[in-house]
Amino acid sequence: MTRRTSTLVMIALGAFVTTLDNTIVAAGAPSIARDLALDLGTLQWVALGYMLPFAGLLLVAGTLIDRWGRRATLLGGLAAFGAGAAAGGFAETAWLLVAARVVQGMAAAFLVPGLLSMLRTNLDARGRTLGAAIWTACLAAALALGPAVGGILCASLGWSWIFFVNLPFVAAMLVLLPATTSRGRDPGGPRPATAPMVVVTASLVLLTAALVEPRAATTSPLLAAGIALGGAFLLRERHARTRLVPPELTKNRVFAGSLVVQLLWGLGVSGVFFFTPLLHQEFLGLGPVGAALPLVLVAVAVAAATPLVPRAVAAWGPHRTVGAGLAVVAAGLFALAAVNHVPAILPRTPGLVLIGAGSAFTVPLTSHALDVVAERHSGTASGLLTASRELSSALGVALIGAVLTAVRSMRLDAGAPAGTALAGGYTAGLLAAAGLTLGGALLAVRVLRAPPSETSSPRDKRAVP
Known about the structure:
Blueprint: H1 3-36, H2 40-68, H3 70-90, H4 94-121, H5 125-156, H6 161-164, H7 166-180, H8 194-212, H9 216-239, H10 247-250, H11 253-282, H12 288-292, H13 296-305, H14 309-339, H15 349-360, H16 364-371, H17 378-413, H18 418-447
Protein name: MFS transporter
Keywords: Membrane, Transmembrane, Transmembrane helix, Transport
Main location: membrane
């Protein structure tokens, strides 16, 4: 196998398994909750344990990869990812499972930028185009197959196998690693800003924990500590000689607005999807496979609508395209909320299709955000966008989970059956998600069409000596 082919296979495997590990857990969540006797708050940490360290370490990971060397970093990342997967599969307590997920999330934060950097170092221009297409296709495949694969594994082999299934991917990538990477490193490269990264990650963890924690006596200290650390990070960024986030990006209205739009979108959709298989099992009475399969409709709708996106951008511009896409997603969430009291799958189909089709039209959000930043900031901008996406997923699970749990508890206190109470909480979560997504749609139309004078466009490169 040539170096080019090995690189493309390595990229495909990495894109698929790091995304699959995020989506497959939602299908196994109901089974995990039953076997380990987890409440909703603890169950959320099975997902959050992966998402938060993944998001928090992405910005510093690129610098560390350069200092340590790509082969050493990927070798350590793959070993940690595999060890976390094995530990998760064998876990018999909630916090051992969450700890295993944290290890996997930390490893993924180094694997993703390390693998993406191969596009530049190992491939020519044509190969980079092919590699980027393969990466995107594998992401989409993992999103589509994750819930279904998770449901099948849970039904046939048990939930442990949603973690064990990672191990063949890790083994294959370890075999390919020597053929795709060298031992080179840059120990004299820039020192990573680890201190502010630790502070901001700790702030995010504490704020998320405050959302998940149901006891008011614990919520307040967590919230206060999270806000204090977040404030310390912002103060450091304002006065530091070298900022973690360059001021050219924070002052760029289009780029900063894109981060907020992406955050609103992720807050809405990610949380809803994590709890959907649980609703399908507890309220509709479906098994693990039947509960997860409806989510495949979303991925199918994404794939079907994607070819229409370039025409929409050409006709409407990226701001209207993204705004319309988010509005359609919000309509799908409202449609699900309107029929959620009906204990059947078929009435939910239009809403799921709308969510998928609308999501396809949000793709220009990332490309447009990168188009308006100078080339010298493209790496940092890419890391911020990826981190924002993962962070929004984590906070979405926590926020929608908090809404769902609060309404569910009120319904249970009023004497409603458990399934009906969960459905009421899920409806409230859908409405909250729809409101957030609609807010993102309105913001997209406004901020993504900022005039060129307010952006640090690629033309700024001429001013750089």
